[in-house]
Queue: 3 jobs
Job 1
Amino acid sequence: MTSQEERPITVAREQGVVVVTVHGDFDLACASRLGAVLGDLIDGQGNLNVRVDLSQAAAVDPAALGVLAAGDKLARHHGATLTVTGLPSGHSPRLRAPATTADGPAHHHLVEFYERDDLLADSVRAHIEPGLRGGETAIVVATEAHLELFETALLSGVDVGAARADGRYLALDADEALSRFMVDGAPDPTRFWTTIGGLVATATGSGRRVRIYGEMVAVLWAEGNVAAAIALEDLWNELGRIRPFSLLCAYPTTAFDRVESTTLFRVLCEQHSSAAGSGG
C-alpha cells in the first residue's frame, strides 16, 4: 500500500474481520495514513469489523493514538466496530514519545486527533521544545486558553521568555490570526500569503529552522466551516513547498461525532503526511 520508507500499512481479511496492520514506527505521519485507510474502509463498506494490529509496530507515539479514537467514533456511526490489538502497555519500553531530530526533512505537515487538552499540550511540547532548545524558531497559533496551557508545558524545559525576547518564540491568537486573511467565510490566498506567509518567511529568513503548531483549522471546523478548514490546510501545504517548516495541526476527536464526518476525516488524513511533496 505504501513504500517501505513510508512504513507500510497492510490490509487483509481474516474470518470476517478486516485486519489493518501497522509496520514500523506508529508515529503522527503513519497515523495520518492509517486514518485515510480507516476512512476508506468505513465509508466504502459500512457495516464491518475492523481490527488495527499494532503488534508489528517498532514503536508507538502516544500522540498518534488519537487517530484510533477518532476512527472508533466513525465506525460506531456506521454500524461498524473497530478494535485495537498489540498496543503496548503504558510501561512498555516500546511506548515512547515522538522523536524529533534537527536533521530531519525540511518540511513536515502532521496531524493529531486528541481527546484531552493535557495530552495535546504534551504533544505540542514534544513538537516545539526540541526546536527551541536547538536554536530554532517556534510559531504557535492557538486559542487563548491553549496558548497559556502550552506555554506552561514548555516552561518546564525551556526559557520561553528568553526565546520570545530573541524573536524565536511567536505566539498568536488563532481568532486574531484568522481575521487577517478570512474573507466572506473563506481563506483569501493572497492575504494568507501576505500575513502568515510573511511571518514564516521572516522566521525562515534568519536561516533558522522553523516549527509551527496551528489550530486555526480546528477553530474553523468547530464553527462548522469545514470547507474553509480544508482550504486552509491546502494553503499550508502550498506554503510548505516553498518555505521549509515543520507543522503540527490538531483536531479534537469530538469534531468527528457526525455520521457524515467519515469522508471529511479521510480527506484530512490525506492532506497530512511526513513531507509536503508526498501528498500533503
Note: The CA atoms of residues 29 and 273 lie 5 Å apart.
Job 2
Amino acid sequence: MTQALSTAPFIDIGANLAHDSFDADRGAVLERAWAAGLAAILVTGSDAASNDRAAELARALPGRLFATAGLHPHHAAAWDETLAAQIATLSTREEVVAVGECGLDYFRDLSPRDAQRRAFVAQLGLAVQANKPVFLHQRDAHEDFHAILRDYRKALAGCVVHCFTDTAAALDDYLALDCHVGITGWVCDERRGLDLRELVKRIPADRLLIETDAPYLLPRTMQPLPPSRRNEPAFLPWVLRAIAAARGEDAEILAVQTTANARRLFGLPVSA
C-alpha cells in the first residue's frame, strides 16, 4: 500500500498528524509516507494544543514536516487574546508556513456563527501581519465566507481553500480571488465524489493542491482498505490518481505540478 507512485515527489498540504490517533505509531506513519513518495507534509493546527504539537513536530523534522497554526471554526467560541497571541507568535517561525485552519462551518455549527466570523476575521488579520498564507475551511457557509475573504484577499500572501467539496459557483468565486484549491480523498468516493470529479477538471493546473486530511477521508478507492479505516499521508497517491483520472492527465505530471504549487504558495524549500 505504500509503494511509491512515481519518481516525482509530492506534498500533502493537510494532515492532522497532531491527532491522538497517531500517538502510538507516528514514526511508522511518517516512514510509510516517505516510502510512498511524499517529499513533505504540512501538519495542520486547529486549536491551542494542536498548534503547539504541529509546530513541535515540524521543528523535529525540518525540511520534511511543516506546520500551520490556527483555530478551526468548530472551536471558534474558544477565541481569546491568549490564543491570538499564540498564533501570532507561532506564525513568525520558519516551520509554521500558514495561518489556519480557519474559516466558517455552518454545517455543524459547533460554535455560534458570530463567534466563527469574529475568529475568522481575526486570523485573517494575523495572516496579513505575518505575511503568511491562510489555510481555509468552509462548509455550508459560502456567502459569509466569501464576503469576508474577499475583503482581505489583496492583503493576504496567499490562500488555499482546504478540502474543497462545494459547488461550481463557489469554485468560480475562489478562483476569481486567485485562491488555491485543496482536494482530498472525497474525490475518491463513488457516491459523494461524483460532482467533485467533474469540478476538478476546472481547476487551473497552477491552483491545484492535494491533501489527505488524515486521519479523516480515507480514499475509498484503496484496495484493500486498511482495517483501521484511519487515513494517513502514505495514502495520498490514491487521491492523486483519482484527480489525474478525472482530469485525463498523467499522474506523474500532476505530482510535479502540485508539488511546485505547494512549494510556491507556502514558501517551501526546493528540497521539500
Note: The chain has one domain: 10-266.
Job 3
Amino acid sequence: MISGVIFDCDGTIVDSRHLILPFYRWVFEQVGLPPIDTSDPMVIAYLLSRSDEEVFERFAGEAGQRERLITFLHGLDPADFVSEMQLEPYALEVLTELRPAHRLAIATNRGPDMHALVRHFEFDRYLDTVVTAADVEHPKPYPDMLLLAAERMGLPAEDVLFVGDTPVDEEAAEAAGMPFLCYQRRSEEPPGFAWEPRGDGCLRDLRELPPRIHEMNGPAG
C-alpha cells in the first residue's frame, strides 16, 4: 500500500533543468577555472543528477580548486536565484490532491540552498519533510536520503513511492527497496537521459500520478 510519496526536486517538482548547466559554467568561471565541457551527453547527465560536491570532485582536478568552488558556492545567497525558477506544471495541484491521504516529502541532491526553494514555493504547506545532500553522508544514487525521508514520515520503505526524473533516482529507489515512477514532462529529453526506466515508462504529466498510485494500491486503494 502506497502511503507516502517522495519527489525529487529538479526536473520533477521544480522546472530548473535549463538553469543547471549555465549555473555550473558560471560558478567555474567566477573562480577562474575553465568551464565544464558540456558537449558530452554523459557529462550533462552527471551535472543534472549529482550533488555539488560530486560535480566539483569530478570536474575540478585539484583539492584547492574544489575548496575554492565550495567556498564561492557557500557565499552565494540562494534567494538571488530562486526567482528564475518555476514549478513543474500542476505540481501544487497534485501535492494538494495527494496530501489528505499520503505523507509527502522531497529528497534532492541539492544542498542547503534547498531551504530557499522551500520558503519561496511554500513547500512546507504540503510536505512532511525535505531531505537534501547536506542531511546524509551519501547522496543519491545511494539510498540514504530516501530511507531518512521514509523514517521521518514514519513509513516503511516499501510503502513509499519515489518519483524522479533520472537514472540516479531509479538507482536510489531500488537500493532503498522503494517502488519508483519516472517523470519526464518533455518527450524529447536532454542528451544523456535516453534511458529506459523499469515499469511502464515515464509520466508526462504530474496529474497522471494520483491515478497511478490508485492503480498500484488496487481497488481498495
Note: Residues 17-81 form one domain.
